[in-house]
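debug: dumping io for the single-chain case to check the tokenizer round-trip. Nothing else runs in this session.
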Amino acid sequence: MTMTPQVPDDDRPPPARFPFGRWTWKEIAYLLANLPMAVAGFVYTVFMIGVGVGLAVTVIGLPLLAAGLHGARLIGKAERGRARGMLGVRIDEPSPMVRSRREQGFFSWLWSSLTDPVGWRAVLYSFIRLPWGVLTFSVTLVSLFVLWPVLPFIARFLADADRAMVRGLLSPSDELERRIAELESDRGVVVDTAAADLRRIERDLHDGAQARLVALAMDLGLAKEKLTDDPEAAARMVDEAHGEVKVALQELRDLARGIHPAVLTDRGLDAALSAIASRCTVPVTVGVDLRERPAEAIEGIAYFTVSELLQNVSKHSAARSASVEVWRAADRLLIQVTDDGRGGARMDGGTGMAGLAERLGAVDGLFVLDSPAGGPTTVTAELPWRDRDRDGDREQHRERSRDRTGAGKRP
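debug: decoded output
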């Protein structure tokens, strides 16, 4: 039995041979389709780009050019799909335009569109393809009737040139482009997280300490009115107000701890995580093996990650014990939280795991959940280790820059 050869892992079809194989016919079809595709792409590019550049001095010129580059992106996408299906070229899609015009504003959208390297490479590809499409169409068509025995080898040679052209002009430029897209996405996560935290702080202040202080002010006002008429009632009201002050202070302390705990700033992760563990409803052992402290931002993320994980242990795990281990491995800060509960935790289970993964991903961190049914549950988190001294140097540099900027301003 003769089996059809598969595409090897390096994207190269099997060697060309006579009689024709499946890949040879695909390459011939691709080469014959080059001409109509090249003509369509060339006409679009000349019209849209030419008109956009020609009208650049007018109001509509640059937006038209930006729209033309978006269309060139679509041409590139179609050509990648054609090469993927007919030439076996395994190629990643370039990063998409990060935000739409409505989301980021017209001028930001215009600038990002006009400086889009993917769109401009697609334009260059469309210009090159017209003469190449004429050549490949003509050579392949003539070879079909004149050079039949050597057509597989001619088709392979021309198709390899096409493969190289697609990889060179239509593939993602490099890892940097993908990294930029990831950072743009991570920035959105950080902004959303910061906004959610601000809303939580505002809600806690409004519903907690603020409401309690308003009630306290009213009680003290009533006590002031009763001070001369009913001193004993006024004294009772002052005592009650004193108790309310203590409760309000405790709420403010809890809120401040939720923003950034003082024990973390003063004594580091070991003491801060031990304080979290002492408030957990499950007995927790804490082991922190760090010879030095990471940057404050990394410490804060590690602290709140463990805090949320231990809250999940208290609320959802039905565990009898849990453990927290923190250590450094090379340039990574590793955190592992384990409990002997019922397991079955999921990233989409409503326990905040997905949010934690997004927050860690925003700073090049990793989040791994292992929670089989019946337990135990193990969560491993990795964060980049950032030197505290270097972080402090950057902050000092920013402070000096602000000082220099402000020095030239008139008071």
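debug: round-trip ok. The chain has three domains: 22-173, 184-259, 265-392.
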